[in-house]
Amino acid sequence: MSEQIAPELQADAESIGHAVYRAMRAEMIDASRQREGIDTPLLMEAWRPRRPTRPPARR
Fold first, then answer.
1. Residue 48: CA count within 13 A, CB half-sphere
2. How far is the C-alpha of 25 from the C-alpha of 33, rounded, in Å?
3. 44 within 8 A of 36, measured Cβ to Cβ
4. Which residues contact 54 (CB under 8 A, 6 or more apart)?
5. What is the largest CA-CA distance in the chain?
6. Rounded to an integer, what is the distance from CA 47 to the centroid of its chain?
7. DSSP secondary-structure letter at 48?
8. What is the pLDDT of residues 19-58, one digit of tens each?
9. Where are the domains of the chain?
10. Whole-angstrom Cα distance, residue 13 to residue 3?
11. What is the pTM of this model?
């Protein structure tokens, strides 16, 4: 079998590869956004500033 690919098949293969890449990238971006929506309330709670605590008053 030859290592060379016909130019028209090369163009088709590249086109298919680009389409697959775009589809997978879109799925990953969508999954990231969904995950971000789940984690956002937890992150906001963790990042909320807390009041500094004072040491107990000495008597």
1. 8
2. 12
3. no
4. none
5. 92
6. 21
7. S
8. 999 999 999 888 887 776 666 666 667 666 667 667 777 7
9. 1-48
10. 15
11. 0.51
